[in-house]
Amino acid sequence: MPIASVDTDPQALTLTVVADFTVPVRRLWDAYLDPRQIERFWGPPTFPAVFTRHDGFPGGLSQYCMTGPEGERSCGYWEWVSVEEGRSFEVRDGFAAEGGQPNTELPSMRMTFDFAETALGSRLTTTTYFSSLEELEQLQAMGMMEGMRAAMGQIDAVLADLSSFAAGAGTETQLIGETQARVSRVVRGALPEVWRAFTEEALLRRWQLGPDGWEMTVCETGAEPGTALRSEWRNLESGESFGFVGSVVSAAPPQRLVSTERMVSPSDPDGASRPETLNELTLTASEGGTLVAYLITYPSAEVREAALATGMAEGMEASFARLEAEVLG
């Protein structure tokens, strides 16, 4: 159990939890900033969490839900207030409805996470600030401390798993709910360069090629909301072609880009008959490079299954390998 001390201060309206770890600060920091890792310990063992958004930058948002053994659900959100890379971050933490909207019937809290180096590894000090003594007592009565102890009891196993989250581990696909999939990979390269590689036409043409034997014939891209997007590829041997069209919904350079996408073909050049997906790209600085996370929302489980069956993840892995070579130069 990593928790070293718990201090409740009714006068200051704070709850402070100190936890010690035998890993470097960078490893602990990455565990909190990587949605694949934090969801392994943020919820208690019987209420595992799934993060559908985890921005990690000021003005950003995190959204998650915990699911119990009988299917009961408890959802929450973080509004990211400040981030000092590798040292601390502050969020506004609250309860949420299923759709992610804040639940104003329950209290929200300010939370700070401070990371420090120690002789044996690292220390995390988490301080929760309440608006009133009543709110503090209400959340304690709801089992906040018991849930926190149970959740943090899982973190050591996550920190010990180095290979699953390291650069070079390959592309990982995770199914979320009935209609979403998250595709993740740590790409060797600094975040600003990876952002450029995703948003500049000349760079995209060099790496976003999928499996060997294909060329990109059309590349219209950008990062401004409302920008029309279009990419097309052709098989060098058979002449077969396909592509995607869409538009930018929102952007927070250099960390987040949200766009729509639907497939096009010679017989359907506008993709009018094809289902549309929502693609949420989030880039997060990580040890060894930049964590690239795509959350793709499909219109149905059947459409998701059909998309994954095309070998989409394998094609993305081939492209990510080229992306690494591009940003490392």
UniProtKB/TrEMBL annotation:
<feature type="domain" description="Activator of Hsp90 ATPase homologue 1/2-like C-terminal">
    <location>
        <begin position="193"/>
        <end position="326"/>
    </location>
</feature>
<dbReference type="Pfam" id="PF08327">
    <property type="entry name" value="AHSA1"/>
</dbReference>
<protein>
    <submittedName>
        <fullName>ATPase</fullName>
    </submittedName>
</protein>
<dbReference type="InterPro" id="IPR013538">
    <property type="entry name" value="ASHA1/2-like_C"/>
</dbReference>
<dbReference type="InterPro" id="IPR023393">
    <property type="entry name" value="START-like_dom_sf"/>
</dbReference>
<comment type="similarity">
    <text>Belongs to the AHA1 family.</text>
</comment>
<feature type="domain" description="Activator of Hsp90 ATPase homologue 1/2-like C-terminal">
    <location>
        <begin position="23"/>
        <end position="159"/>
    </location>
</feature>
